[in-house]
Design goal:
single chain, mainly alpha, 2 helices
């Protein structure tokens, strides 16, 4: 189970993602919102499948 530090890092990352999408949504440009979501999904996938993994099992 992750410790408090790891959980806080994860929560800050999630908050950053929401803020980035929110900025685009406030501009009223739905296409920019969709583009931002696609960029974020690619960034998340890179973290999930990085070599070597973040944790060793």
């Amino acid at each position: 189970m992750p410790g408090e530090k790891e959980l806080n890092i994860s929560l800050f990352d999630q908050l950053t993602l929401v803020e980035r999408i929110e900025r685009q949504a406030e501009s009223g440009d739905l296409e920019k919102v969709k583009q931002e979501i696609e960029i974020l999904k690619k960034e998340i996938n890179r973290k999930l499948y990085q070599k070597p993994p973040l944790t060793s099992e």
